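As noted in the main text, all predictions were made from sequence alone. Below is one such record, for Formate dehydrogenase subunit alpha.
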Amino acid sequence: MKDFIIPQFAPGDDRDMGTPARLGAPVSLLVDGIAVTVPEGTSVMRAAAEAGIDIPKLCASDNMEAFGSCRLCVVEIEGRRGTPASCTTPVAEGMVVSTQTARIQRLRKGVMELYISDHPLDCLTCAANGDCELQDAAGQVGLRDVRYLPGDNHFDPSGTGARSQAEARLRMPDGVANPRWTPKDDSNPYFSFDPSKCIVCSRCVRACEEVQGTFALTIEGRGFGSKVSAGMAGDDFLSSDCVSCGACVQACPTATLQEKSVIELGQPKRSVVTTCAYCGVGCSFKAELNGDQLVRMVPYKQGKANHGHSCVKGRFAYGYAEHRDRILKPMIRDRIDEPWREVEWDEALAFAANRLKGLQEKFGRQSIGVITSSRCTNEESYLVQKLARAVFLNNNTDTCARVCHSPTGYGLGKTYGTSAGTQDFDSVDHCDVMMIIGANPTDAHPVFASRMKKRVREGAKVIVVDPRRIDMVRSTHIEAAHHLPLRPGTNVAVVTAMAHVIVTEGLYDEAFIRARCDWGEFQHYVDFVRDPRHSPEAIEALTRVPAADLRAAARLYATGGNAAIYYGLGVTEHSQGSTTVMGIANLAMLTGNIGREGVGVNPLRGQNNVQGSCDMGSFPHELPGYRHVKLPEVRAIYEKAWGVEIDPEPGLRIPNMLDAAVEGSFKGLYCQGEDILQSDPDTHHVAAGLAAMDCVIVHDLFLNETANYAHVFLPGSTFLEKDGTFTNAERRINRVRKVMAPKNGYEDWEVTQLLANAMGADWHYTHPAQIMDEIAATTPSFAGVSFDLLDEKGSVQWPCNATAPEGTPMMHVDHFVSGKGHFIVTEYLATDERAGPRFPLLLTTGRILSQYNVGAQTRRTENVVWHPEDVLEIHPHDAEVRGVNDGDWVRLASRAGETTLRAKITDRVAPGVVYTTFHHPSTQANVVTTDFSDWATNCPEYKVTAVQVSPSNGPSDWQESYTEQAERSRRILPAAE
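Prediction:
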């Protein structure tokens, strides 16, 4: 299949070179008379590919180590006996290789005949026709006839020598006679497994091991009886450990493992390279199509964040774009108790604009605001904050990024001078010790987790700091050196205790600190941290982490070589989230683990554009590029560009907007791509604030939970229907390219522009490239960024400017952005949320692999097979005390509210701790979370809620009333004739 990609985008070499690239001294050789020079350790197969010679292969692929089983790739080497496999033979200086001698051709034909003798010849009706490596290899070796008659085989259920399923049914209509034949496994919702077409090349098994790291597949049996097995006897692809990442499907050279979409829709004929709209890894994909019909998403080999790998969400869970729940027509209503009325765009925009302008005239300029989302592109987020500042003339702009990673911005900004991760993802390949704190990469960032697991299998050590036993603590071929199962809310104490060990045992890097950090601040910090009250022994009762384990983990981090810290929402979503981030930054500076490969401080951003929405000035106190709105020289840049006066006073954050709404002073909200009723804490308070507003505009794909309280609904476009950019967790700016026309008629940035113009603005953007040009002209860290550059390079990492015209993969190499690194005292202060007799357990929340955030997208795909509802994980001891059995309904109650859900008894959580996800609105986990938040940024404290768990008979009264209210609010009047 030929790729059709945006013409100016140089896609790079997307060929499968057979074996991985190597680094080493140059070696020169001749392949079929062609001179080629490659690094030492390169295989003969890859060297031939570099010379433009394609050696036939079936078991080889360049994302896995050579295997040497198919024997199609044999070559002759001058001076050597036999015909070695080119995939397992390394090059040597002066080597002379022949790939097409008569002897080689004869051998390859013989090998292919053996494969074909145990393979059905239904190529014309096979789903892989046109994309089958076995078919291609047969043509490549010139096989025109098969001498072997059908005999003992795996493809004929009748055992009569039939070559197709239809013929077999005719010959054996009443049952199966061939014991070697195995029926197709269709258990997985996204792909099928047809053993009759398997050539046992082991590529799927090796991809599961080497690329994904799950080890779900194996080869069962020996010789002619060998076959691929998905786990134990009786397991299928759905019940096994398979995580549906698609690596096996991508690796399969036949139709044995095949996407069901390809079986149904046929082989795609064109493709467009774009970026996944799920997590912060930012995987690149080829969206492959027939016409404008999307057939499949294939991870793009040249994607610098994912290198051709994917997860179940990015690879398969795109069906929400076509879901029947999607709203494609604008809708309005005067009151939220009325049904929706479909209208044309002009009427909806005029209705919204008139209401907003009327509210400002009556209640003042500060009475309305905006919320943007980390699901939106950089260009969309930029326009939404511009709408607030240049059209509403206030700074009432906020984003969901504040409720997850705003402490990252504050903490790293104070210590290092910039609010982003220090490394690129490739840096993990050089890591010797990785400390994972408050993150669950295998579920929340699965593609990067596969990289982490691969590095662990190569010998890197892992320290996990988490209340739960996540997969990085213990899973197949993975065993953490240390697991510190801290009590939720005690992150600061644990991190400071690690620093105490490093300082008191003299394990810090004095030379680095003297050269790179403020020495006076360091001395002050040392005086603080060496105090005995910060010792592991002193905090053991508080944190529940054994002192000996904590000391050993600190020593390993300080002395184990290149050490990197990876953290997530389990760090930031606390009342001391910013303090913990600063404590983590302190650890890296103490040990000199900053500014080179394999080290650093790396926040794992949750959603696809958390980094970008922060970069674009979506916070009420910051303009794009993290520059405070009070600075006149910064405001002057935008006043000149926009032709308006910028308010110097910071605006309202989301909780402030809700408070002001309840009080009666905040009356109108434009909410793009965000569902605050489900995602924000203290659901009762959010609902009260929304209900008190006179104009709530929801701009989204579906009638989400927030839309229950909306007066205007503006239909949104999916990432498949728009152009723009996302910025991932490593600061990588990736292009999002339009795969198909927007089903609602407009891309999201166009809708924002239409609303702005309806309110009196005069915006004239015609393409997101122009918006990025404006961003580059006004934001120093994006000064060199343009769509042309991204199309040329594939992606760049900011800062990208005159100093770094091709971007900055690694930050703080010679100096910190702030000049000197700043050590900051990290005093532990207990959260105001305390467990006690009434609420003795601590609830912490997180995500699961198959679902994404509030589930608006993934719940509308087949991913619900794996996670149809949120459940409450509870330790066996806590369950027994309360008379709770596995699968029982339980009441989960806190000081803020209560809900019910089913219990899952597991020792993954410690006694006294319970855990749930927040993907399903029927549970509304955030009805129990409180309004406590980070002291610096108001990031909600989702990870520490005092709760009680007790048996229940089913949904609570609140859940039932909420469901009824949601159903009433989603009524849509029939379209007028």
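The radius of gyration is 29 Å. Residues 345-363 form the longest helix (19 residues). These features were considered when defining construct boundaries for the mutagenesis experiments described in Section 2.9.
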